[in-house]
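User: I've been trying to design a sequence by hand for this structure and keep getting stuck. Would you show me what you'd pick, starting by listing the structure so we're on the same page?

Assistant: Good idea, let's start from the same input. This is the structure you sent:
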């Protein structure tokens, strides 16, 4: 597993390279597989970079675990 600093640096370098060359960053070019990290580590790193104002323009949608969803209780269906 790579450290936060290593992963964050790779992400920021990619974004900087895109900026300097006038390219639009493509999320498919930069993903967990290409960085050789887990999806969770990738998501967590992007969230931390966003929270620390290093990156902008990314929205995160945290879902509710099905275990806590009221839809799982048939008495709540309407």
């Amino acid at each position: 597993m790579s450290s936060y600093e290593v992963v964050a640096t790779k992400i920021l370098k990619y974004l900087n390279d895109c900026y300097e060359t006038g390219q639009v960053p493509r999320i498919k070019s930069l993903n967990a597989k290409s960085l050789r990290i887990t999806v969770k580590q990738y998501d967590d790193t992007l969230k931390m970079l966003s929270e620390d104002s290093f990156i902008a323009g990314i929205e995160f949608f945290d879902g509710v675990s099905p275990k806590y969803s009221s839809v799982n209780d048939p008495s709540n269906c309407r």
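That's my pick for every position. To get oriented when you compare it with your attempt: DSSP finds three helices and no strands in the chain. The chain has one domain: 4-58.
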